[in-house]
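Running co-folding for zinc ion.
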Amino acid sequence: MDGIDKLTRHIYNEGMTLKVYVYQCKRCQHEWPSKLARPHICPKCKSPYYDTPRTRPPRAKVKPEPAPALDDSFNPIVKIARELQDG
Ligand SMILES: [Zn+2]
């Protein structure tokens, strides 16, 4: 506690104003104070894009569509044959 008191007094005597910005990461919602005008990355998720919200939703794991089973309608010859039969 003594050390903290001395430090506080020291800063006061020096007349220093500590400008501390508080940033919030738009990616992980983490908030942190920083003396930097613009920190490079979010200290939590390490994203350099902490100040820009995601434009795209996080990529969901999309299951690849199973290839459609080939039936006769995909066969152009069968298709023509059917059209000839119908017509
Ligand atoms: Zn973050």
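Result summary
Residues 25, 27-28, 30, 42, 44-45, 47, 50 surround zinc ion (CB under 6 Å).
The first helix runs from residue 2 to 14.
Job closed.
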